[in-house]
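Running co-folding for pyridoxal-5'-phosphate.
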Amino acid sequence: MAFLADALSRVKPSATIAVAQKARELKAQGRDVIGLGAGEPDFDTPDNIKQAAIEAIGRGETKYTPVSGIPELRKAIAAKFERENGLAYDWQQTIVGTGGKQILFNALMATLNPGDEVVIPAPYWVSYPDMVAICGGTPVFVETRLEDNFKLSAEALEAVITPKTKWLIFNSPSNPSGAAYSHEELKALTDVLMRHEKVWVLSDDMYEHLTYGEFKFVTPVEVEPKLYDRTLTMNGVSKAYAMTGWRIGYAGGPLELVKAMDKIQGQQTSGACSIAQWAAVEALNGTQEFIPTNKEVFQRRRDLVVSMLNQAKGITCPTPEGAFYVYPSCAGLMGKAAPSGKVMETDEDFVTELLEAEGVAVVHGSAFGLGPNFRISYATSEELLEEACKRIQRFCGNCT
Ligand code: PLP
């Protein structure tokens, strides 16, 4: 349609939403469908956080807030960065947005000029390339390998940086692979960045609190403090505190960048919801006991899913360190016939046939820029996960 903006042609519809829609259609037809596509915890927001929101409404905290967020929340964010990450951000160097998504968007909007390149390791969270493209930049993908547990190597990063590179988007633990970088692994990357002074780092730490076993989360500036002046450290309450619907994300970074993001936000939303901001103050300053309890549940689910998937014929599933996703390879099934008789050539064929044959909805890896793989979200009950994995095993066993 001629009326629509050219920029729209650079945006792809979300594959994760398309899978959810297909699963809903099958359910409406009476099929028994298990959806493993959701990118949100299946727990409810803790009561202390809900209560803080109710009290905020009672106090009349129902008006516009400062564009970058209420000082109470920005101070809680600065304290969180200090306490959990050893990062010293003055509260004025922090900004609150309507979800982590808006923080990323505004950072890109505030910095990208046409032709600027943004390095995105693949597999990547579906929104990064589209956000970069909408903001006029050029996404530059760098593939990781299953053998490296989907982690970017120093050599691969070095090879992809050009004089036009403006940002590296770094996401650990990763959506969709669950891969999280240890101190040593991240140091190898920050060493490369130290040789490229013009490259900034957008660190998406959204899944910080979801790492398992002995794994210790680290963020780029913690590993290389010299990157402080060219890193935006982004995080949010969505995943750690089961608050996806409250829409609160935040970041800390150089003052000039934060002010530029404030300028955009001032003409865009005027700031995040006042009530949700008060809830987020409680999330960050209140009890944190919810986090280890959740981690235990997620770790049990991860171990169950990884073990059962590795028993499915043709599937290889590495054990990720974090988030609530696994990203198995279905390469062993390519060229094989599904029970319907259809020969599967791509991971999209695999997920379509799996949904048709067994009613298990997962997302194809090519949507995340690396295949043939698929993403499973294990943010659902162990009972459903076990049943879904049994169905995947049966499906794979029936492929010839
Ligand atoms: N970053 C990653 C890697 C995500 O997976 C998500 C949500 O799925 C976000 C950012 C955005 O989170 P929010 O819901 O706070 O906008």
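Result summary
The longest helix spans residues 290-310.
The longest strand covers residues 165-171.
Job closed.
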